[in-house]
Amino acid sequence: MNVLGPSLAPYIRSSRTLKKYVTPVAHWYANLMGYRKMGLKYDDLQVEENPQVQRALGRLTPRETYERSYRFKIASNCDLHHKSLPKEQWSKPEDDKRYLQPHILNVIKEEEERFTWDTMTVQRK
User: Fold this and answer.
1) DSSP letter string over 31-58?
2) CB within 8 A of 73, min separation 6: which ones?
3) Can you tell me the distance from the alpha carbon of 64 to that of 104, in angstroms, rounded to the nearest whole number?
């Protein structure tokens, strides 16, 4: 298991029937979580103490880093006042793209490759 956890998404996406039934439930659950009401994106909820996530955060562009910090500032302000953002300022589902996941997957792949190279044994012919 990696830092992102187990995922059934590839299996569900491959089946039209499963996708048809699971997609509305997934959208309902994402709205129920409430992070969009505070202007956050799904990847803002990643546990930052994880070393892979720390390295992935370091690979974000300055623009992405600024936008992430701004979203956290807005969410902290909402939490302080015990209010959600106005409905027009909520994060929209089409804008809630996984911006951090590709970086995390690259970090994990690099660590696996590094481990493979570090544990390789050289045999003489």
Assistant:
1) HHH-SGGGT--GGGGS-TTSHHHHHHHH
2) none
3) 15
Report whether 43 contacts 98 (CB < 8 A). yes
d(CA 107, CA 125): 34
Query: Taking the alpha carbons of 67, 71, 74, 80 in that order, is the dihedral positive or negative?
Result: negative
Read off the pLDDT of residues 70-106 as tens digits, 9 standing for 90 and up.
999 999 999 999 999 999 999 998 999 999 999 999 9
CB neighbours (10 Å) of residue 24? 9
Measure CA of the first residue to CA of the last residue in the chain; give whole Å: 37
Helix H or strand E encompassing 116: helix 101-118
Q: Which residues contact 9 (CB under 8 A, 6 or more apart)?
A: none
CA 111 – CA 52 distance, rounded (Å) = 9
Q: Is 101 in contact with 43 (CB distance < 8 Å)?
A: yes
Give the tens place of pLDDT for each residue, 24-47.
998 899 889 999 999 999 999 998
